[in-house]
């Protein structure tokens, strides 16, 4: 499948994941922005920005089966943009933050 279609499909799966959690979801109308999805929790008022990544795994070599690391599109907003990963089978994993002190 075309990589752009894989990315679009991953975004749609992430939207369904958030809607099932009871969140309001706002999809980006751009394909090059820093944020793919914005979620709003109508109960708590919490708003989060998300970047969606399609997970891929190494097929050969000594690290066969390991995830391929995908970097952020815009590292300037690392503190406010959350990551969500969608596997090819539809499994969704929210990224964990590694807090660094500067």
Task: Spell out the key features of this protein.
single chain; 102 residues; alpha+beta; five-stranded mixed sheet; 18% helix; 25% strand; globular
Helices and strands, in N-to-C order? HEEEEE
What composes the largest sheet? 5 strands, mixed
Instruction: Give the end-to-end Cα distance, rounded to a whole number of Å.
Output: 41 Å
Radius of gyration: 15 Å
Shape, principal axes of CA atoms? globular
Proportion of residues in β-strands: 15-25%
Strand order in the largest sheet: 1-2-3-4-5
**SS content category:** alpha+beta
Give the beta-strand count.
5
- Total of DSSP H or I helical runs spanning 4+ residues: 1
User: Low-confidence runs (pLDDT<50, min 5 residues)?
Assistant: none
Mean pLDDT: 82
Give the proportion of residues in helices: 10-25%
Description:
The N and C termini lie far apart (41 Å). The chain is α+β, with helices and mostly antiparallel strands and 102 residues long. A hairpin with a 5-residue loop joins β4 and β5. The protein contains 1 helix and 5 strands. The chain is globular. It has a 5-stranded mixed beta sheet, with helices on one face.
């Amino acid at each position: 499948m075309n990589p752009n279609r894989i990315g679009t499909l991953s975004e749609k799966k992430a939207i369904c994941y958030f809607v099932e959690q009871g969140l309001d979801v706002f999809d980006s109308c751009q394909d090059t922005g820093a944020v793919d999805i914005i979620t709003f929790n109508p109960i708590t008022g919490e708003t989060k920005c998300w970047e969606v990544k399609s997970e891929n795994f190494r097929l050969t070599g000594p690290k066969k089966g390991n995830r391929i690391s995908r970097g952020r599109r815009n590292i300037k907003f690392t503190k406010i943009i959350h990551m969500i990963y969608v596997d090819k089978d539809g499994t969704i994993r929210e990224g964990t933050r590694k807090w660094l002190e500067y």
